[in-house]
Amino acid sequence: MIWHDIQQNTEEWEALRVGKATASNFGLIMANAGKAFGDPAKRYALQIALEQIKGCKSEFSFSNEHMERGHEQEPIARILYEDMNFICVDNGGFFDHDTYGNSPDGLVGSDGVIEIKSVIAPTHYATLQRGSFDPSYRWQLIGHLDCTGRDWVDFVSYCADFPENGQLTTHRLYRGDVEIEIAQLQERRNDFLELVSTTLAKINGTP
Question: What's this model's pTM, rounded to 2 decimal places?
Fold first, then answer.
């Protein structure tokens, strides 16, 4: 594994991710675990295979106003998180495992990472009611722990529409509580990378 001290959403960062499975999409890989891969995972495998062939990003993804807002407000959420916890968050960079990788939103000390989600009010309120992280991000969080080797990840939900004392909520997931899930992810990801290889061979016309 190689850690690159690089900022997210830069050209250099995008280039490092080309042709690799990344933690933000591990949920696609883990869907229907124990069964055949579904269409979303197959589509993702095709995206990665094409990137490996072309050496550049394939336009399978999209950007919308929610994603743009998240990029704009993430620094605010990071500062609030630092102030609330009296700590400094370092650059998350990119954890490169050759065929897959991971970009946490920040590194905390030598043991932790954070994942920041800047969300709309209903989503933030649902997280407050649930008293835990949004389950749709579970495999991304587990991916952070697996790829970084760190002990815990903080899921940070931020919403600027809430009153000041309720704009930020944090929920921590410990590595020791998800060791079984980490092993499941590793096995399923290996199968997915085999799917990528098979897809690549078919595109190239290899029997």
Answer: 0.92
